[in-house]
């Protein structure tokens, strides 16, 4: 296959007690891990439907202890799986881009299960046409970063991650490298139960929606 780019998923094994901890106490640790696993599986499904790309997952955590471990292992057979490297999240992102640096890279996480193959394909096209693409998240972060030359991932080195201004500071860091950045649609990622319920309504027939529906608050499904 003539691969035009790499779609890189940066993921954490959905281990109970370590995954989606902000969904508790509304969800049990096991339910939160099931939501994380469903989100990752739905994301991987979308990536598999994007044509002519190398598919890579940069993984951290104990997959053997994860929710939906057998299904995740079956799905990951279709991906090149590499370990995450680095002492903090920004460093792990930079290294993941470096490790697949033979192609332009569109990097996403596992917190936007509503992502579609069309949207990922558009990110690939935009990345190939310019210098970079960036998809901001509603909480101030970002959900996707495309770089025609992955060496520019070094721009992330000095950007604090998981902050309300991470998206803006990432955009500034890319502009500081004189990169033309094409914006992608703003998406809501999944951090809280409210986020999860809102995103589940966007993809009602997904694994993610089913996992969210299993969470109960005071004996009642999440609205």
Automatic annotation (TrEMBL):
What's the domain of life for this entry? Answer: Bacteria
* A Pfam family it matches: DUF2064
Cited InterPro entries: Nucleotide-diphossugar_trans (IPR029044), Trfase_1_rSAM/seldom-assoc (IPR018641)
Tell me the leader sequence span: none
- Under what name is this protein listed? Glycosyltransferase A (GT-A) superfamily protein (DUF2064 family)
Q: Which organism is it from?
A: Kutzneria buriramensis
